[in-house]
Amino acid sequence: MARRSDVQQDPRIAGDPDPYPLEGFDPASAGRAAAPRRRGWSGGGGRWLVWTGRVIVWALIVVIVVNGVRAIFERSLEGDGVPAPAAGTATSGFPTTQAAAFANQFAAVYLNYDAANPQQRAERLRAFLPEGADDQFGWNGYGRMSAGAFQFAGIEVADDHNARVTVTYQSGGSRGLLSVPVYYDNGRFVVSAQPALLPAPGPAGLPQLPDPDRDSATEAELRPQLEGFFKAYATGNQVDLQRYVASGVTVNGFGGDFTLAELKDVVVPPGGTDSRKVTAVVVWAVASGDQVAQASPAQDPAAEPAGLEQAYQLTIEKQGGKWFVRDIQGASRSVG
Fold first, then answer.
1. Which of 19, 84, 173, 261 is least buried, going by the fewest C-beta atoms within 10 A?
2. 317 alpha-carbon distance from chain centroid
3. What CATH number is associated with residue 231?
4. Distance between CA atoms of 203 and 205, rounded to whole angstroms?
5. Distance between CA 308 and CA 311 in Å, rounded?
């Protein structure tokens, strides 16, 4: 019966999760029963294994959580239109600037042809075309076209060797686009396929602005002053300009390249008594060197000085009861 009682009191058989609990253990009170528990040292090794296992499990949980959070973050970026960077992007090595220059030059040759001299175009195209291509590259040899104002408009790069360059041009009263497929290899370009003419977008719709409020009294007061200022502005004479500009301000003029033909309008909005923003519309007379040299210009309109209407915004301020120009720049629309 004593043996049976000893077995029932053994904590390992009773289901205690820690077979050798240290807390509350008193070897002196245990008496002889304490001796068998000395073999519990091997149980201490068991606790070490248990804690090692727990550390490994927690480490795995941390790794899983971190990877899960990172995956969620990356998916959220993709959902917001910010794609994750791709390794080894194929378009990174394509020289877009050089391709744009190449396509501009090609367009200048391709879109200018004249049936009276087709051979000249063929010779100029040769530098852009692949070996064996038609020397006129699709032109049938008839008619005439003259284009200019070529500008790079955009590029779509397919890979390290292929791209499509868009060039703007103007021919007569029309604007257009030319799409040029190009191939690049080892520092050299070639037009890789037939180009395509595309329509250019029309002008943007400009909203109408209401007529501005005007201070007619100040406009009448300013007109003589501004006429004198723009005449001095045309000549660039600093002595004359200082009569019209604010103290401590220097304004450089045109040096005689233009002359004032007309001060067409002065718009002064209501505002402060000492400073205003004024819009002035002037007409400059522009003469070429040949026209200036003529003592009496012919009646041919081409021999008469050109007139260019321009709009300026001036900052004026009052000093000693008189208005002076502090700043001049091009006018702009304030709204719309």
1. 173
2. 38
3. 3.10.450.540
4. 6
5. 10
Q: Mind listing the pLDDT tens digit for each residue in 5-55?
A: 444 444 444 444 444 444 444 444 444 444 444 444 444 556 666 677 777
Q: Enumerate the β-bridge partners of residue 8.
A: none
CB of 176 within 8 A of CB of 197?
yes
List the 322-330 sheet strands across, edge first.
Answer: 259-267, 275-286, 306-319, 322-330
Q: Which residue has the tokens 């003029």?
A: 253
Of 98-102, 130-134, 292-296, the range with the lowest mean pLDDT is: 292-296
In a domain, 64, yes or no: no
- Residue 328 CB neighbours (<10 A): 20
Return the structure tokens found at 4: 């049976």
Contact (Cβ atoms closer than 8 angstroms) between residue 303 and residue 284: no
Q: What is the mean pLDDT of the chain?
A: 81
Mean pLDDT of 144-151: 97
- Asked whether residue 66 is assigned to any structural domain, the reply reads no
What is the Cα Rg of the chain in Å? 44
Pairing of strands 322-330, 188-191: unpaired
Are 234 and 260 within 8 A, CB to CB?
Answer: yes
Specify if 260 maps to a domain.
yes
Integer Cα distance of 234 and 253 in angstroms = 6
192 and 222, same domain (yes or no): no
| 3-state DSSP percent of the chain in helix, strand and coil, to 5 | 35, 25, 35
What total of structural domains would you count in the chain?
2
pLDDT score for 297: 52
Q: What is the pLDDT of residues 188-210, one digit of tens each?
A: 999 999 999 999 999 999 999 88
What residue numbers bound the domain in which 284 lies?
A: 216-292+301-330
DSSP element (H, E) containing 181:
strand 174-185
What distances in angstroms separate CA 26 from CA 8, 23, 34, one per listed residue? 19, 9, 9
Phi, psi dihedrals of residue 2, rounded to the nearest 5°? -65, -40
